[in-house]
Protein 1
Amino acid sequence: MLCSVGSLSKDPVAEFNPALANRIQMPPAISVRPIPTIVLTRISRNPGNWLTKSPDPMKPAKSAGDVMLTRMVTIPADMILADAARLLVKHRVGSAPVIDPGKHNPIGELSRQACTDALLEAVYEGLPTDRVSTYLLPWKFRITSNSSIVEMVGKFRDCSQRLLPVYKDDHFLGIVTRSALIRTLLGFLEHMPDHESRLLYLSALRERDEAPEL
């Protein structure tokens, strides 16, 4: 049987069987207390926190010196490529700096893609692989420890390098990888309070990079 909404406020037993209603005591009305609002605080496991040197959460890492790697796998230029490929796979590295054995300075990088192409050619031709110096990618761009995030993103976009070497007065300091840059940008998004502040911050970085040198 369907009943209207208004009939729900009446006693159904008293309405249909008054005699039975006198013998049955209905339970008292249950007072519904308002449920308090629960505020959930999300604990952010921010992947970019370790890149931030400032205690102020509004100031994430802004320069290459904040995100560069100083400990890395390096490959001598005179190493046989097959051995270098094993080294990259062992350490799970996508690309590594190639070091000049004589001057001990980086002269480029060797990537897994270059190793794959060289190994395929060696297998197809039935010949051993040559030294790493034959397959390395020379570095066209390099940055300083003061290079901004916007500058680093632009360098990666304009070249085929997987690594950006960081220098100070011709002294090699470390490298910036795309992964480290992505972690920094993700950390930046976590730190900024709203969309408008993020836009203002990126706009300020672009204006600084595009300003003429005095």
Protein 2
Amino acid sequence: MSREKHDDRRWPTPLKPIAADDDLYNADLLDPAIRKNDAIQLVINMVSPGKAPDMKKATFGAGCFWHVEDAFCHVPGVISTQAGYMGGMTENPTYREVCTDKTGHAEVVEVTYDPAKVSYDRLLDVFWSIHDPTQTNRQGPDIGTQYRSVIFYHDQEQQRTATASKEQQQRKLKKAIATLIEPIKPFYRAEEYHQQYFKKTGKRVCDI
């Protein structure tokens, strides 16, 4: 029985470590060989060896994820962002499936941040400022449950902070806030062309 010849060219070239304060845009950092193979997960070493700060995650839905991701990736202390889908029934949904409003998912952005540089309260302030939380299952012309206003909390501390923040925002508004506060569910990363969409295309509006 013949043995398959080993071919080193099948494997991607290792990437060099990236400093934690670099301007990270995940899609732009991926080696082309990795981008073509969804089965390979890239883990980027964003800190020097032996020093691992306690990075945290936050997940928000506030309408079209293009502008939501664009807002959060410019916040100092945010390490990385990725657009995706959360809160539905369908496993590994596609963008087109989510757009049918039948999968139950919301368009969300998962934010990885350094709590030593930016607080969860600060991220909530950004969240409230970039959309109208009084609209139910829509944002402007974008209509459907996938555009709902939602905060997915990762732990009880985030739940308490988000609830208090919502109550504070409600005192400023006459209309009732429709924002949901729910525990995280499986996150499905959106297709690559959605990642850092405004940065890639130079567009500042959602036109799909």
